[in-house]
């Protein structure tokens, strides 16, 4: 299969491209700069120069392929417009892919968030839970991207084999340098202790990036149209245990942060609204339908490996 990948030099994309090539696919990666082009080539893929603002170029790349994987975001918009601006820029990209792939039955697989089914379900989120509508109260939160996920799944009605891989809150690996775990570790070192919100019983989920890559490949190869997939290995880890693991490695205590000290300029700062959420999730349908089985170390084992701390 000839596969076009946007975001191939990012954390997940740099694992997705080799996964696809190892499975016999011919991959072309989008590259905005000479540096990105060199990185795409080093991964073994062909290079297509362009950027996410060139919708005509993206449509052409999609039309020339047998399938598309999109894991790129306009991160340059985050400082000024936040997640709402990122989602607003991403939506026309998905619609452009839809125009190029409509009626072909070709796959389009994009990255989603485990926060999209919402909170307070009273049970783990499943792949059958849709991305919830976005209201004014959700502006500035991860749920702002739900309009993008809903649009991608909706392309199934136009003859696109579209699906969304909801990636766990924590995607870990030996090359994770700017994700959530490095942020937690930096905070603990700065504050002198590893904090967790309240009693720390709220559940988070996690997955190794190599397992994420294999799931994207399976969704591309055989995933039915209009589906959500859950890239989750650890379905629900109490946040307190994550803080304790970080603290143990750094030789620092794990400390509860009271609710009135969570917000800016408290311990977690702008992350306060995120770290207090509860994200239990199931991967049963993903495993049963696609035959996906996580094979890499889980979150706590990866923290025990020590590479996060030697790198920091």
UniProtKB/TrEMBL annotation:
GO cellular component, one term: cytoplasm
InterPro entries, sorted: Epimerase_deHydtase, NAD(P)-bd_dom_sf, NAD(P)-dependent_oxidoreduct
One Pfam family hit: Epimerase
Start and end residues of each NAD-dependent epimerase/dehydratase domain: 3-224
GO molecular function: aldehyde dehydrogenase (NAD+) activity
Protein name as annotated: Nucleoside-diphosphate-sugar epimerase
Species whose genome carries this gene: Streptomyces zagrosensis
